[in-house]
Design a protein that fits this description.
It is a single chain. This protein is an alpha/beta fold. The protein has seven helices and nine strands. It has an eight-stranded mixed barrel, surrounded by four helices. Strand 1, helix 2 and strand 2 form a beta-alpha-beta unit.
Length: about 230
């Protein structure tokens, strides 16, 4: 077998990951076995032992940072507890529309402390009153991704609503290059090859007060390991 140049391998791997098992036509969230949640300070004090004992998720995404200065006050505690319990975790950054993407990425890298075995980093981009210049948003988001790619060796997963993706991001963040985590409470956004689908914000779990977002993954538990930092 001829060896491919190292610069090609990451893109080849991503293409294989993207093209495998992404036919979601006619499937509901109940058709996906592997599921997880995402949390932030809004869930307050989570009893992770109770969560793990009663109905442990396969994965958890924790909010780590927002903008250039904000660090979620519950991140460090939640991350440590999940590690103790052996629950696969990742971290996401909430994109700020008024600050440089590079500085936001540096904030995330510093606070998240992601390493081998953690899920790939996530960039969460949402509509906000400060979104006044879509072209600038895309430019700064791409700069964020550039810094993340240089540090971790991979592009971040892109989280957004289906409508937001179609309106603002689809042209510059194609699924052949970026893994998608789509929020759509109307039903399966099967016309996009998503990897994670946030299908509700009203899930209830023993150990968490109030509602929590629930997500499903397009693959097996073994497949999920492919979306971790190597």
């Amino acid at each position: 077998m001829r060896f491919l140049p190292s610069i090609i391998l990451p893109f080849l791997l991503l293409t294989v990951m993207w093209s495998c098992g992404t036919d979601h036509t006619g499937r509901t969230h109940e058709d996906y076995e592997v599921w997880g949640i995402d949390v932030s300070r809004h869930q307050q004090n989570i009893d992770w032992a109770a969560v793990a004992e009663r109905n442990a998720p396969y994965f958890v995404f924790l909010k780590a940072t927002e903008g250039t200065l904000i660090v979620d006050p519950t991140y460090e505690k939640n991350a440590a507890r999940l590690d103790e319990l052996g629950i696969l975790r990742g971290a996401y950054h909430f994109f700020g529309h008024r600050t440089p993407g590079r500085e936001q990425a540096e904030n995330f890298i510093s606070a998240a402390g992601l390493g081998t075995g953690n899920l790939l980093p996530v960039l969460d981009i949402e509509k906000h009153r400060f979104l006044t210049d879509p072209e600038k948003m895309v430019r700064e988001a791409k700069e964020f991704c550039k810094v993340i790619r240089k540090h971790y060796g991979v592009n971040p997963i892109i989280y957004c609503s289906t409508l937001f993706y179609e309106q603002y991001l689809q042209a510059d963040f194609p699924p052949g290059r970026y893994n998608l985590w789509l929020a759509d409470y109307r039903g399966n956004p099967a016309h996009h090859p998503w990897r994670f689908w946030q299908h509700t914000e009203s899930h209830r779990l023993h150990g968490i007060r109030g509602n929590v977002d629930r997500n499903v993954f397009a693959g097996t538990e073994k497949d999920l390991k492919k979306y971790t930092i190597r």
